[in-house]
Write a sequence for this structure.
């Protein structure tokens, strides 16, 4: 099973699209865990409007994205985890793509795919210069060729449970996590496109 974790803070205009992008997948062995991080708008009502048993809504006071993701991981039943921001989307075959790559690369801890950035008038595609496993994750990361993250990466659940997000920070939490896990994690890179960033909704977390 794949657990898709969606932290939400004041994303009433976008979160439905994110949830729907998961519900529309052609792969069915998944769950959606939405963690409402103290939203003050109608985000919770939007989430509750979906009548689907695969969606679990968790509510907490506003404690930041790191705490929200960790709470989602604690409740996840899947062996693999995808973090999806509430203003972004998965492409319809994203989960089946991730799962197929996992079956071919069973020793991977992180599977990193390509992504699209949708601007108002254009679509940009971002893929890796090199695919497969890298000999030196840190060198590849610092060189800008490797950046596992929300939406376009699937993480082994045990990796995140053993290395949770730092709840003391609210910005660059992804980079801080990668700094701790890349030394030992096996990262497989693919140019399959799995993820869409919607710039009209996106903002810094």
């Amino acid at each position: 099973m794949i657990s898709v974790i969606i932290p939400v803070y004041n994303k009433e205009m976008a979160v439905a699209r994110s949830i729907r992008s998961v519900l529309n997948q052609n792969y069915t062995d998944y769950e959606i865990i939405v963690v409402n991080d103290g939203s003050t708008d109608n985000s919770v009502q939007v989430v509750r409007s979906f009548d689907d048993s695969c969606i679990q809504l968790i509510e907490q006071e506003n404690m930041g994205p790191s705490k929200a993701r960790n709470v989602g991981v604690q409740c996840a039943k899947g062996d693999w985890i995808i973090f999806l921001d509430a203003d972004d989307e998965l492409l319809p075959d994203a989960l089946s793509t991730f799962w197929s790559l996992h079956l071919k690369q069973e020793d991977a801890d992180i599977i990193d795919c390509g992504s699209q950035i949708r601007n108002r008038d254009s679509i940009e595609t971002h893929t890796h210069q090199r695919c497969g496993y890298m000999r030196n994750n840190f060198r590849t990361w610092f060189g800008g060729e490797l950046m596992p993250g929300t939406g376009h990466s699937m993480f082994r659940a045990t990796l995140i449970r053993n290395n949770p997000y730092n709840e003391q920070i609210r910005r660059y939490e992804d980079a801080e996590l990668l700094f701790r896990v890349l030394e030992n994690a096996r990262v497989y890179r693919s140019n399959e496109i799995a993820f869409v960033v919607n710039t009209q909704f996106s903002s810094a977390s």
Summary: Helices lie at 15-23, 43-48, 65-75, 94-104, 137-142, 157-162, 173-181. The radius of gyration is 16 Å. The chain has a mean pLDDT of 90. Residues 100 and 106 are 10 Å apart (CA to CA).
